[in-house]
Design goal:
Chain lengths: 295, 178
């Protein structure tokens, strides 16, 4: 039994190192395909030229196995642990081991800074990093881990709105569009938005973050929510902020909204902004220890 | 229009540049983001000596960038080095530009309060996220100052060739694409 656990632990670390590397050195195919099609339809010459450079950069990063963006971000880990998966741990130590290896072999930029002293240990480790989100999945035999490399520029535009329930539903779209308008080129548009509607302050931010894991062009199953997602994409594109804020037709690649019941007195809305360079990768490990990537 | 410019430049070389033009730079630029800007201004206010090397940047450019640096046998190399968001340095930049005689600010997202016309400094946008491919244009790290700020925050003096494409996003006539 111990031998089996050791072997699973080894495979988890191997999987983690691989998905960190994949996430930071190449863009998901769905992003590449989407940017390619935007490039062909874009009416702004400046936006077009930049999209060409962006696609060349993705190719160069993947071929040379180096980070496409120097900001390798805060690595966010999303763990879906099957209740029947034979190995249970808090995963913190395995993730830290994997980050140590990734720091050396990729390499990653040191993105963990002590908020009191300003010191950077240059290893992406320290107090309360990296963020790990753990969900237990009933009836599942598998372990799935997704890593999202979240850069600072886009994260800085993220926001929590505690709206008035009397007009929160009517107001929130306006608030989000205003936020993106003020953000201009800062979050590296065209952006992807994760939005959490309802819940409480922390729940809506968490839902917003997790909403970013949904595939591009996927809509919320509730039709009225899906409709809001489509409306928001259109309104943000109407801002004509364009690639890097230099003008153009496409400012928003997608909007993903997740919903939670709220307190009668609160209307919380969480907004997490992601740059076009949506660096994400995942693996799935079954209980026998066989691993599949990009699932 | 497309321009290839050798650094340092004279003030008059900025006059033809219009928003939307493409620029490639040859010569020396320095990386500087949050902490470098803060320290330059702090040192100035406290009467502390700013390293001589910074004054050698007259007519050159500051690049808002926190690169990934690799050290091999005592030599540093930029692995990936795209731009960071310029707006964070906005409240300090005019003072830094005046003090060092900077002619180009390179970054992403633009700067709301940069006095491009008064100070005759142009803002050049390099596409965010394109950090890997630009490493071909960074020929050498010539020098580093203030490494104690951390590898991402330090001032890396870079020798660049055909550094770009950079888009003139705020020109010296006061026009802006933002």
């Amino acid at each position: 039994m111990q031998k089996k656990k050791d072997s699973l632990r080894k495979n988890i670390k191997k999987g983690l190192v691989k998905i960190i590397k994949d996430a930071v050195t190449r863009a998901p195919q769905e992003i590449i395909d989407r940017l390619n099609s935007i490039k062909n339809e874009e009416s702004s010459e400046i936006a077009k030229k930049q999209l060409e450079l962006i696609l060349k950069n993705f190719q160069y990063g993947a071929e040379n196995k180096i980070p496409v963006c120097q900001d390798t971000g805060v690595l966010n880990f999303f763990i879906e642990l099957g209740a029947k998966f034979p190995f249970v741990t808090n995963f913190q130590d395995i993730i830290e081991d994997a980050i140590k290896e990734a720091n050396e072999t990729i390499p990653l930029r040191g993105n963990s800074v002590d908020p009191i002293t300003g010191q950077n240990p240059e290893n992406n480790l320290g107090i309360n990093v990296p963020p790990i989100y753990l969900d237990i999945i009933n009836d599942s035999n598998d372990l799935k881990v997704t890593v999202l490399a979240k850069g600072g520029g886009a994260e800085n535009i993220s926001k929590l709105f505690m709206l008035n329930p009397s007009n929160g539903f009517e107001e929130f779209q306006k608030k989000i569009v205003e936020t993106l308008n003020e953000g201009g080129g800062m979050p590296c548009p065209p952006v992807i938005l994760g939005i959490g509607l309802g819940g409480d302050a922390s729940k809506c931010m968490c839902l917003a973050k997790k909403a970013l894991l949904r595939p591009l062009n996927s809509r919320n199953p509730r039709t009225e929510v899906a409709e809001i997602e489509r409306e928001l994409i259109e309104k943000i594109n109407d801002l004509q902020i364009g690639v890097m804020g230099l003008g153009g037709d496409v400012t928003c690649l997608d909007v993903h909204i997740e919903v939670a019941m709220r307190h009668p007195a609160s209307y919380p809305v969480g907004l997490i902004v992601q740059c076009y360079s949506h660096r994400i990768a995942s693996f799935k490990l079954n209980k026998e220890g066989s691993i599949a990537y990009g699932v | 229009m497309e321009y290839k410019l050798n650094l340092p430049v004279q003030k008059k070389e900025l006059t033809p540049l219009q928003v939307g033009d493409i620029v490639y730079l040859n010569g020396e630029i320095v990386t500087g983001r949050d902490q470098v800007h803060k320290r330059i201004i702090d040192y100035k206010n406290q009467g502390k000596k700013i390293p001589e090397r910074f004054y050698g940047l007259k007519g050159c450019g500051i690049y808002h960038c926190g690169p990934i640096i690799e050290e091999k046998n005592g030599n540093y190399q930029v692995i990936s080095g795209g731009p960071t968001t310029s707006q964070r340095m906005d409240h300090l930049e005019n003072e830094v530009v005046s003090l060092l005689g900077i002619r180009f600010i390179i970054g992403k997202g633009g700067m709301k309060n940069l006095k491009t016309k008064d100070l005759q400094v142009a803002y050049l946008s390099y596409t965010g996220g394109c950090g890997a491919i630009i490493n071909q244009k960074i020929k050498k790290i010539k020098h580093v100052e203030w490494k104690d700020l951390g590898l991402c925050e330090a001032a890396w003096f870079l020798k660049v060739e055909e550094f770009g494409p950079l888009i003139v996003a705020q020109d010296v006539h006061g026009k802006s694409l933002y």
